[in-house]
Structure prediction request, 391 residues.
Amino acid sequence: MSVSQKSSPRCALICGPYLSGKTTLFEALLAEAGALQPHSSPNSPFVLGDSSPEARAHSMSTEMNVASAEYLGESWTFLDCPGSVELLQETRNAMCVADIAVVVVEPNPDKAITLATYLKLLDDLSVPHIVFINKFDKKNVSVRALMEAFQSATEKPLLLREIPIRDGEDVIGHVDLVSERAYHWEENKPSVLMSLPEKLVEREAEARTELFENLADFDDELLEKLLEDVVPTSQEIYANLATDLANNLVVPVFFGSATHGNGIRSLMKARRHEAPHMAATAARLGMSDGDATQVRIFKTIHAGHAGKLSIGRVMCGTLASGDLLNKERPASINRIFGRKLEAVNQATTGDIVGLTKLDDARTGDTLTPQGKAEDEGFSSPERHSGVEGKK
Prediction:
C-alpha cells in the first residue's frame, strides 16, 4: 500500500441498535485520538453528541453526529448514527460513504434480532464492518453465548479477536488472540500490559486456533500451514484479517465498555491497521483515483438563519474554495467537529466536509463540477421527493 493511500483521510461509521451506547463510543474514540477529554464519570454529559434540542428533549440521538480528528498522523472522520429504526435511512446514507462500520451492540443474546438489521444492510451495501460488544463490564456475560446468538444474525463468520480476563464475576481485561498479549483495564486510561493468567492458557489456545481456522477458509496457504501444524506469525494473521475485512468476508468482534474507556484502544488500533483505505471504497463504488472531482452528499441540514449545510465526502479529486459543484459555488468548505464548523481552503480525496449554500444539492446526489453524476447507491426518499429533513 502506498504512502499516499496511508495518509488519505478515512471515515468510520458507528451504528447499531437503540441504547447500545453508540454516542458514548463515538466520544470515547475521539478521546483516544486526543480530540476530547475522557469523561470524568459514567454519568458525564456528552460533549459533542446529542447536543441538539431535539436530542436533549428525547434523551436519544435524533440526528447524525460528525467529528474529524487526527490519530497517529492519520485523519479520521467518525459518523455516529442514531439507533432509532425511524431514522435508519440516515444510517444507510452514511454507509454509502464509509470505509468501515463499527456496529455497536449490548451483551445480550436477545439483541441478535436487532443486530441482524444492521449487518444485513451493511452486507447489501458491501461495507466492511466490525462488531463492538459494548457494556461488557456487566456481570455474568458469556462470550460463548453471545457469539452463538450473534452468529445467527449474519451469514459471514464472526471472528472473536479477544477473550475476557475475569476476577470472579467481573471482567477486568482482555487477551488479544493475535498478539497473545494480556491487558488489564483501567478507568478511562490505556489498558496496562499484564501476564497471561495461567487459568486462561488453554482457553486462549482454543480461541486462537478457532480464529486461525476461520481465516484459513479464505486462504489456502494458511490452511496448509495449519494442516502441517505450523503456527503462522502474528504479521501473517494481521495481513489475513486486513485482506478478509476489506473484501467483506469476515466480521471481527471486539468488546469493552465505552463508558469506562475499556477496550477502546484495541478497537482503534484494529480499525486503523485493518480497515480499508479510501481507494478500496472508491473502487467499491465504481470510482477510481483518476476520476475528476466528485463529492457525495449524504446528509442535508437546514439550520434556520444559518442556512443550508450539505455534508458530503470527497470521493475523488480535490475541492478548493471557488470551485464549482453542479454549476454552483459553495459559500464555504468546512471541517466538522460536532456543531462547530471550521472553514478550510480545500478538501482532498477522503475528506468529509460541510458545504454551505448549495441550493440545488440534495441528500443522495453525487456532485461534479459539470453537474450531478448518475448514482444508484442511494435510495433516500429525499432524493426522489425533493423533501429534506429540517433539523
Summary: Residues 1-6, 379-391 have pLDDT under 50 and may be disordered. The chain has twelve helices and 20 strands.
